[in-house]
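Severity: low
Component: inverse-folding endpoint
Summary: output formatting inconsistent between runs
Steps to reproduce: submit the following structure tokens with default settings.
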């Protein structure tokens, strides 16, 4: 018998799908989508090519009791969509703040999935944040639109190292006050 850890993290309803904690059965789809260069290049932390064991390690970190980031799967299976549409997370910072991050499967880009996930997560505010930060690569204006449409305010330019690109990449930084 295989027993899976239960993560103390809420499930959140969006209009077309739900946000649920990561589970072991997500491994194959996570490997497929995170292994797609288009996804990896738009994140700072996903390497490309995806090394063996990376999806399993991501799942282990996501369900760990001492994690510093809560991760949700955008799951559309109840509405006849795919079981894994993308991933969204809140990385805990100090003083009731978090940093939001997300990616969506390339076949669903420009479908409103990211906007819906960001909106649902902010509305639920599961970590009782007062402020949420975000950063997007400057060559990814679609993600910037997701944030500005969700009410994030532009703070300034910065840069972050992208593992997939093996380079520093220019970013736009955003913030949204929730209370």
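Observed output (run 2 of 3):
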């Amino acid at each position: 018998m295989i027993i899976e850890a239960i993560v103390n993290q809420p499930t959140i309803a969006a209009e077309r799908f739900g946000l649920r904690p990561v589970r072991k059965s997500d491994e194959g789809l996570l490997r497929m989508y995170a292994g797609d260069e288009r996804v990896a290049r738009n994140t700072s932390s996903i390497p490309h090519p995806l090394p063996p064991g990376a999806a399993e390690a991501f799942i282990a970190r996501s369900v760990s009791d001492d994690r510093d980031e809560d991760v949700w799967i955008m799951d559309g299976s109840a509405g006849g969509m795919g079981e894994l549409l993308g991933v969204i997370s809140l990385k805990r910072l100090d003083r009731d703040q978090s940093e939001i991050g997300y990616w969506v499967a390339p076949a669903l880009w420009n479908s409103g999935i990211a906007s819906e996930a960001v909106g649902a997560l902010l509305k639920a505010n599961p970590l009782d944040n007062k402020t949420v930060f975000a950063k997007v690569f400057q060559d990814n204006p679609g993600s910037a639109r997701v944030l500005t449409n969700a009410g994030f305010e532009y703070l300034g330019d910065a840069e972050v190292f992208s593992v997939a690109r093996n380079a520093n990449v220019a970013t736009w930084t955003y913030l949204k006050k929730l209370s």
